Amino acid sequence: MKNAAETSYQPTEDEEGVADSAASLGADGGPVATVPAEDSDQSFEEDLDAFGDDDAWLSEELSDEELAALGEEDFGDDIFSDEELFAEGDVAPVAEEPVEQVDEEAVEGTAEESFDFDDVFGEAQEEINVAEESDNVSEAAEAVGEDVAEEQTEGALVAATTAGAASANFDEPVSELDVAEFGEEEIDHRPVPRISIHAFCEAPETTTLLEKASVDRRLSKAHLTIHMGGINKAIDHFQSASTPNLIILETMVGGAEIFAKLGELAEVCDPSTKVIIIGRVNDIILYRELIRQGVSEYIVRPRSPLQIIKTIADLYVDPSAPPIGKTMAFVGARGGVGSSTLAHNVGWCSAEEFHSDTVILDLDLPFGTVSLDFDEEASAGLVEALGSPERLDDVLLDRLLQKHTDRLSLFTAPSMLDRDFDLDDQAFETVLDVVRGTAPTIVVDVPHIWTSWAKRILMTADEIVITATPDLASFRNTKNLIDILGAARPNDSSPTLIINQFDPKTSAVQAAQFAEHVGIKPAQVINWDPQLFGAAATNASPITEVNGKSKTAQSIRDLSAQLLGRNEANIAKPKFSLAGMFKKKR
Question: Which H helix or E strand runs over 360?
């Protein structure tokens, strides 16, 4: 530090005296104690006693030149700690700061006012969240400032609202603000129930988002109609038309004008109709007043159709209801590729190694193999449920399901050819909805047939796994499946592709060719291993139990982890047992 001080300050000839006097001072402004020689201990003690008694230097005021010289050395707070500056028992000197004169009457008036830290912090955080939604923070701040100024000059927004809003108070506590800011990673698997929705847009971008949302699998049960014209069009439309369950309105205005239009709309709409407004103004006061006036939700500049879908789902799905299960549909690119075997092994791995309650549905009613792979008797429970889907509830479902383990349940196929299985498409959807409410993981074994119900199951599944073999037929069919599923599911991720029975020497199509021409990189490439799969089929055991250390077993674990969103660290590994090791040797 001394070297740094000497470098930063070079005294001139006129300032040498001032610098010398300043150099004789210590770091705290006092005189520097000189270290005595070893042979003069007694004189040093006398000087030290004299130094301790004489503290007049503490009250001396330094001249401007001395202060300037001392100012060249910058002693930051982080250079020395208290332990370094002061020994044990010493007290650090406290600098006396000038005390400002405070008006006692002002203090008393301030003390009478109540101060709530949560309210202040909550309002500040809410305004920050709203500002972060805007593409341009400065624009959001300017918009908020303009609207607040409008509130101050023109009075409360209730001046233009309908009757009953005259006594609105913007200072009332409201719930935590969340202006429908949803991330892409927060994908909800809950489908929207059968409702009618009318949307009135003003911008082409909003119309495009709603069109993409209308073809999403989560809105497959709802009926969405899109109009152009905004709130004015909605007022004219419902003069002679019945009111739907939900109205989505886009508006470019804010402040009192929007409340005047909503008052006109309320006169022609049913009171039970829910309203979602898509606006451009990031104003916390506007949002609070809209919610207070009965608007269900206010979205600021939605950026994805999933944001709109989740807002609709939150209005019609009970938040206290248990979450529904995730459906994984397995389908083969052609017959005999091993899609059913892979589905059954993933279902076992999810239940037993990842500890996720799992239900396997074998929808290949005449030729299903889930009963053979798990050594269970074929049951007609699934056909009974599909024959009378309106009777299916949790109690009946527990009776029809076959409990294979504590975490794995089976809906086996009857495997009978003495009857036809011409079932209604709605029956499959109803059964799946009931099953999804009982377990978090649903594995659906879809047969290699192209019927209306099989296509609908693939379109509405949360995850799709396509199993293909490295041959030309699978290569062509995989391309067709991915194209049609991608067009029908624009808001979902691509299907998961598995290459099975791969032999690098004899396979006609390599894995790299699938990635290049199909457009999807295979998630797993399972080599041709007839002995392992044959032993598993003969013993009615999963691959992970026949040979848990094989590459095929590891591929199944990795695929299960990917579909469940887990990692291998979640697998409950068996404990080491010395007795078990000796028992195996016998």
Answer: strand 358-362
